[in-house]
Amino acid sequence: MSDITRNEFLKKLGFGGGSLLAIYCLGFSTTSCAVESSIGTDENFLIDLSKKSFKPLANLGGWIKVRNVVVARTGTDSFAAVTAICSHEGEKKIEFRPSEKDFRCAAHGAEFDLNGIGKNKKGRKGLKIFQTAIEGNFLRVTLKKDLKS
Ligand code: FES
Asked: Model-level pTM?
C-alpha cells in the first residue's frame, strides 16, 4: 500500500493530524524502541503490519509493545492484546510468553492468561484487554469495555 493510498485510507477512517505519531517499542528487546507512524488513540489504534517495526507480529509467538499495550501473535489469524501496565503495582513490564501462551510481568512475576485473567496471586486483579481485528495491512487494537471488575 503506498503512502498516498494509506493516507486516503486513514482519512476515511477518520484519523489524521496529531493522532498519527507515537513511540513504538519492540517487544523482543527491552532496549529497542523505534518511532513509527501511529494511527488513532491509546484506546483505539491501528498498527501498520507492513512496517519493519512490527515484523515480530508476522511470526507465531512474536510480540511488540506499542502505546502501553502488549500485542502478541497467538495463531495464524489471531492476536491477543493487553495493557502493558501491571495491575499488581503498576510496573510497565508485562511481556508475552510464547511457550506458555500467556502474559507475565517481569517485575514480580504476576501471570495472566490471554483474556487478562490472573493465573497467580500477584495477577489476581487481571489486566485490561484489547480486541484485535485485521483490516487490510493494519491490525486494529481497541480497548474492550465490557470487562469483569
Ligand atoms: S508490578 Fe507486575 S508483578 Fe508486581
From this structure: 0.78
